[in-house]
Structure formats: C-alpha cells, structure tokens
Amino acid sequence: MQVKRLTKTAIDTLEYDLEGPSQQIAWDPELPGFGVRVYPSGRKSFVVSYRVRGRKRLHRIGRYGVWTLARARKAAKANLGVAADDQDPAEHRDEVRDSWTVSKLCDEWVKQYAKPNKKTWQADESRLRRYVKPAIGSKLAQDVDAEDIEDIHETISQSAPYEANRMLAVISVMYGWASRKRNVPVPATMANPAKGVRRNKEVSRREYVPVEKLPDLAAAIDAEESVYIRACFWLLLWTGMRRSELLNCQWENVELDNRRIYLPDTKAGEPQYVPLNDAAVGILKDLPKMLGNPFVLPGHIKERPLNNIDKPWQRIRDRAGLPRLRIHDLRRTAGSYMVQAGHSIHAVKDILRHKNTRTTEIYARLAEQQARDTMDAYGEALTEAMKPKEAANE
C-alpha cells in the first residue's frame, strides 16, 4: 500500500483491502519508515518502522484522529533519531504514555503554582482556557514547540496584540516551572516553546484626564445614583489606589484619625499604607456602612464587596466625553497632577507604592506634555494679541 504523498486527504481515503495482506501500511515517501496502518475495522494508526540491534521493529505512534499528521510525523522523526543511536523507541512507551497533555500541564500549573503564588492566577487560568487548550490542549506537553506557540500568538494578535503578549508570558512561566519540577513529566532539557517568539511592540498608555475635562468627569460621577459607585470613583481619583485595592478594602483597615488606609495584601506582596487627603477623608466619613458587610464599598451579595464597576464606568466616561479613558487611568491622573503640583518623583512613587521610579516617570512625562500644551496655547494667544489692530480686523 503506497501513496504519492502522505496528507490528511490521502489518509482519509485509505481503505482496508479484504483481499490484501493482513498488515496494510501506507508509507510516506518523504519520510522513509513513517506510515499509516489501516485495520479491518477501518481504524488507522500512525506507525514507524526501524532497525535496531540487528532487528527490524514496527512501533505504533498513535491513533489517527487523536494524533494529527504533523504531530505524528514529528514523533516519527524523533523515534528514528533514537533508533539511529541504536536505542529502541518502543522501550520508552511507558514514559510517553505517562506524559502529560498540555491541558493537564495547564491544570497542574494553575493548581500547584499560579493559585498559591500569583494574584493574577484567575486571569492566567482564563488565558490558558480560552487560547491554549482549544489550540494545543490534546498535544503532549513535551511535543509543543515554538511554531505551535507562534500560531496561537499570531491568532490572538489580530484582535488583541497586548493580550497575545500576556499569553506568551504565561506559557513561558508555565514551561519554566515544569522544567524545574521533578514530578512533572516534561524533560528538564526541553527548550521553552515561548522563548524566541517575537512579542508585539507595546506603547505605554499616557491617558489621563486633562484639566479642562475635570468638571465634566466630576459631573458624570455625581450623576450616578448609587452612593457607593460615586464614592468608588471619587476615591480612585483622590487616592490613586488600584481598583482591586479599593474594592477589597474593609472598614477595619480604614484609619481616619491617622488619615490613612492599611493594605494588608498588596501587589508588592507586603503590607502598605495609602495616605488620605481631606477630600478622601470627607467621602469616607459620609459613606454609610452596610450592616453585616465589612467592606467599605459593599456589593449586592451578602458580605461581599462591590465587584462590577465596568458598566457604571462606561456610563461615566460617556457622559464626560472621555470614551478612551480606562479605570486605571484615574490612577495615572492622580500621579500626573501630583507631579504637576510640584511633588518629587520619589514622593509620588512612595504615595502610589511603585516598586521603582521608572513607572512613576510616566506621570512626569504627562505633566511635561500638559506644560507644553499650556505654553503652546499661551504662545498662540500672545501672538494673536501682538498683531496690529488693522491686521487683526482683516
């Protein structure tokens, strides 16, 4: 049984010849020793034939339909390489059988590493579930290469280039973890498949609320019916807190006498304090406490905090005429105006709890842009005022 070229179409058309030999194999002329065996039941399996230690052997790779042609061809090349070193690939069947699929690796990484160690584990798990498992979940983790990851990255990049980069980072960390764990059946010498895949270029966002739009934003926030929604966005603006920090804040950690909020669990992994100005203190003093709910911003579910603020934010930014502004940009706005008020980069870094000044320097650039815009407007106004009256009236 011979075919001109082993392709999916060719394999689909193969049929067992009842008048032919009991063992019927279609060999691939492009890779000698690699073929597809057809059984009387119609089932088909990929096989590889080789000679080792003077004996000819036929090794079954896997069932067609479970294994793809590309994956089976790659495995056949690996088996032939092992046989070339005078070792029998069939002796490694138990090792291959015990190997994890990518889906299994994803689940174990989330359970053993991400969930205990990463605050972003839910986002990581979501990326693996949405992007990685549907594409390569059935593949053996040790068979994944950079080309597989590049295909996923390119697909995501068409609509979400930054998200594609986040997915690459998750895969890279996951395979790095697997190579260090003795109980994970992924070769320690295996190259990390996410390494070498070119990331999409990213540009730091520089969105913040310009001074002329602050009245519009204030009116848009105050137009919300819920006192907790209003307080949420005002506090984000007045304190520069991260969204998760504010939503998870409990009254027991609010120290109004000391004008600060204690954060026991932060992104930096250590307890921190958020200083409060007069406006923030006033909001917190006037905010009603919900009986039986420990959170500053209580939600509709008993003993749970406010959690869905995306829809209210969409309403607010639409009313304010700031359609591109994100919730995190309120933190950027706070940092920008702190710098514009004359505070040093290091002081703003401490207030916003950045690990280093590189992040804080973004706010300095925002302030510089605001200064340039002001000077441009001043220059245009002064130039216009200096024109002769006759020319001005023409």
Quick structural summary:
By secondary structure, the protein is of the alpha+beta class. The protein has helices spanning 8-13, 69-84, 93-97, 102-117, 121-136, 146-157, 161-180, 214-222, 227-239, 243-247, 278-286, 310-320, 329-340, 345-352, 357-386, 389-393, and strands spanning 24-27, 34-38, 44-52, 55-63, 254-255, 260-263, 272-275.
Q: What does this 3D model show about the protein?
A:
- With 394 residues, the chain is of the alpha+beta class.
- The chain has three domains: 8-95, 2-Layer Sandwich (Double Stranded RNA Binding Domain); 102-180, DNA polymerase, domain 1 (Orthogonal Bundle); 211-331, hpI Integrase, Chain A (Orthogonal Bundle).
- The chain has 16 helices and seven strands.
- It has helices at 8-13, 69-84, 93-97, 102-117, 121-136, 146-157, 161-180, 214-222, 227-239, 243-247, 278-286, 310-320, 329-340, 345-352, 357-386, 389-393; strands at 24-27, 34-38, 44-52, 55-63, 254-255, 260-263, 272-275.
- The strands form two sheets. A four-stranded antiparallel β-sheet has the order 1-2-3-4, with helices on one face. A three-stranded antiparallel β-sheet has the order 5-6-7, with no helix packed on it.
- A hairpin with a 5-residue loop joins strand 2 and strand 3.
- Helix 4 runs antiparallel to helix 5 (121-136) and helix 9 (227-239) runs antiparallel to helix 11 (278-286).
- It starts with 7 loop residues before the first helix and ends with a helix.
- Mean pLDDT is 81; it is low at 93-97.
Q: What is the CATH superfamily label of the largest domain?
A: Intergrase catalytic core
Hey, roughly how much beta strand do the residues contain? 5-15%
Briefly note the structural class of the backbone.
alpha+beta
Overall form:
elongated
- The run of helices and strands is HEEEEHHHHHHHHHEEEHHHHHH
Number of domains: 3
Number of helices: 16
Helix coverage percent of residues?
Answer: 40-55%
Average pLDDT across residues?
Answer: 81
The name CATH uses for the topology of the largest domain is hpI Integrase, Chain A
The radius of gyration computed from the alpha-carbon positions, rounded to a whole number of angstroms, is 31 Å
Oligomeric composition of the shown chains: single chain
Q: Given this structure, which CATH class of the largest domain is correct?
A: Mainly Alpha
**Largest sheet: spatial strand order:** 1-2-3-4
